[in-house]
Fold:
Amino acid sequence: MRTSCEKRQLFRLYLWILSLALACAGSIRAQTCLTVSDMDQATRTAVESTAKHYFDMVARGDAVALKQNSISSLAAAFSGIEDAVKDNQQNLSGVQATPRPPFELKTQDAAADQHAEFLCGVFGKNGQTADSAVFVIPNLAAGTYAVATLDAPTAKGNFAVTFVLQQIGAEWKLGGLHVKGTQVNGHDANWFAERARDFQKKGQTHNAWFYFLEARDLSVPVSFMSTLQTDKLFDEMQSVKPSDLPSGGNTTDLPAAGRMCKLTTVFPLIVGKDFDLVVKYQADSVADSAKAFQDNTAVMKALLAKYPEFRDAFDGIVARAVAPSGEDYGSMLPMKEIK
Structure:
């Protein structure tokens, strides 16, 4: 039986072989990707200027103009973009953003691709290289797309603003908007990776796991992108992957509030300037908010009793009781108030 490391190496070898095949016969795949060095200058200029133009709309809070310049499917369900513009307009107002090298993605399938995977750049025998990237975008209709990211330094930290664009005729229309902080209190992906290694040395493997997760997340502007850095972090963090926390749809039991609670997920989350830990668990009902708050508090206390190391790594805990209907009730407490 192959180890996880061996499987990872085989997957990287597969990517390398596939990238060579793409270079020789690009038509063998329904998806292709061009890096900035492969794009023609006219396309690069059009993509970057369009991204800058849309960034200015976000910075002005002009969601109406963005909607007018969106593909029809996005314009028909635009509330998420409107919320993103509203949430970030104040931070981005007046900011001079700098574009990163864009990517051009093409998919030739007649119907929406259920699992469109784009291999961008040159891959080596071990997989990704310094200039490569992989994008995995499900349910993507046939067409020509671009992923354009702009770095926006603000008074509240650095942000990466990413536009997914679709070419419609001679124009690049908005197909998606992602605004993401690239730092937590001035700390970037490298800082979180180093802290993860420090926790690992102390034997605090749960903290190490969550800090590696945050390092991977901060190192890319969108969640559907992977790079050489994210792949290396993935390999490194496998040695501290916890077996006693919920994952892959499996729950974990935690005694709290006089009963056995089933945790469904635990993950780190940036909340303002804080780096918090979120725990979700199954609840029969959340109709009684006072009881739900008490249960949430009990779960927080029980979690810290079982994993006291979390006090060294997080500013607070967010507990969310989730009813069978999907309705939930959340509470947040700073770490110092959980006793």
